[in-house]
Amino acid sequence: MATRYDTSKQALTELLSGEPTFRVNQVWHGLYQDLATPSEMTTLPKALREQLEKDLPSALEVLTSKTADDGETTKWVFKLSGGATVETVLMEYNDRVTACLSSQAGCAMGCTFCATGQSGFTRNLTAGEIVEQFVLAARTALPRRLSNVVFMGMGEPLANFDRLWSAITTLHDDLGLSARRITVSTVGIIPGINRLAEASLPVNLAVSLHAANDQTRTSLVPMNARYPLADLYIACERYLEATGRRISFEWALIDGVNDTMTAARELAEFARPLKAHVNLIPLNPTPGYLVRGSDKQAVRDFTQELLELGVNATVRRTRGVEIDAACGQLAADTVRATLRTSNGPV
Ligand code: SAH
Ligand code: SF4
Fold first, then answer.
1. What are the tens digits of pLDDT across the range 124-181?
2. How far is the C-alpha of 325 from the C-alpha of 86, rounded, in Å?
3. Please, which residues have CB within 8 angstroms of residue 334's CB and are 6 or more apart in sequence?
4. pLDDT in the model for residue 334
5. What are phi and psi for residue 2, nearest 5 degrees?
6. Ligand nearest to the CA of 152
7. Does the pLDDT value for residue 340 go beyond 90?
8. Where are the beta strands (DSSP E) in 255-303?
9. In CATH, what class is 61-343?
């Protein structure tokens, strides 16, 4: 049975074939305008509401929900059918409310510094599982409007392109989110970047660069061996030509690894001709990677060097560190549990 947000209007019409035809739009409106569960759709007769709770099951079972930053950051762990878990983060700022969504349960890319990468890959999410993360976060954000989406949760979005794109289309067409407020973050899957360049909605692209020489980058991001920097550069250039939209590069500053002045110069050479924006973030600690994030002074020096080299760069504020909701920390609990188990008796 398709889950609530995996059910197309066509399938809903078939499901409601014994009902007056206006019920289809009522239920659709309930799901996508009111963000309501079937039992909350009080315009429907009670028996139908009960039936729809069964026929349109939720895809996400809340395992835990935690808040941090004075209630401005919320993290959920959801259980999916089949038992896989994913995490979603909601971040409220003065000028916007952002949801960080997962596109896969786990991730197969194996980036050494990332908790999700350390925990391995379970499966792709369906479009409805992605959309429902948005809906639940949007309900929590009320009365504020959930205004932005970043695909920086668990998983590599461009390794699940078709379902991702179907979810993005729903966010845009049915949930009224502007494409310019959606950001897809990738480790650098070139065929996916090429598809985004041709896509019909102008979503933003973030590329997780972290190093601008192949040796360091491959040690941090193993996929770099398959899609090396020279090819990635060409893909970014094509994307820029095709869309005219500014790319951002994500760079997690790691003590002594990619926070040197040489690293800054390599990054500047890569980013400046592409007119890219660089987002710097000190590495968040994860159990499987023991090098520390850069200290405050190193972050300042690196940023200053980039600015002097003519690169647009900002330092990201980390949210939700204490509830493991920060970038790259998702699934940290699972990894820790595994490490405890493999270290001997619990
Ligand atoms: N797979 C995609 C999107 C999910 S990861 C990608 O890699 O871009 C979201 C972001 O968190 C990426 O920029 C990733 O490099 C970053 N990240 C992963 N682990 C991190 C860590 N420990 N500290 C800081 N950022 C991290
Ligand atoms: Fe996957 Fe992104 Fe983590 Fe790399 S950084 S392992 S691509 S989630």
1. 999 999 999 999 999 999 999 999 999 999 999 999 999 999 999 999 999 999 999 9
2. 12
3. 85, 119
4. 53
5. -70, 145
6. 1
7. no
8. 277-282
9. alpha beta
Residue nearest (by alpha carbon) to ligand 1 atom 17 = 328
Tell me what the mean pLDDT of segment 289-316 comes to.
96
* Residue closest by Cα to atom 4 of ligand 1: 152
Residue 91 has which token pair?
């971040």
Residues 6+ apart with CB under 8 A from 84: 105, 106, 122, 123
- Which residues have CB under 6 Å of ligand 1? 107, 113-114, 152, 156, 185-187, 208, 250, 252, 281, 283-284, 286, 327-328
Positions of CATH 1.10.150.530 in the chain: 4-55
pLDDT in tens, 102-128: 999 999 999 999 999 999 999 999 999
Angle at 184 between CA 329 and CA 115, to 5 degrees: 15
Q: Please name the CATH architecture into which domain 4-55 falls.
A: Orthogonal Bundle (1.10)
- From 91, 103, 152, give the residue whose CB has the most ligand 1 atoms within 8 Å, as the site to mutate: 152
Residue limits of CATH 3.20.20.70 in the chain: 61-343
| Six token digits for residue 47 | 């028996």
Using a pLDDT cut of 90, give the percent of the chain over it. 89
Share of the chain above pLDDT 70, in %: 95
| Neighbouring-strand partners of residue 278 | 249, 313
Predicted local distance difference test score (pLDDT) of residue 192 = 98
Residue tagged 């066509």 (tokens): 10
Task: Compute, in angstroms, the gap from residue 207 CA to the centroid of ligand 1.
Answer: 10
pLDDT for position 324:
77
Give which of 182, 190, 120 is closest to 159, Cα–Cα. Answer: 190
Please give the residue that has the higher pLDDT: either 291 or 1.
Answer: 291
Of 109, 124, 284, the one to substitute when testing ligand 2's pocket (max ligand atoms within 8 A of C-beta) is 109
Whole-prediction pTM? 0.94
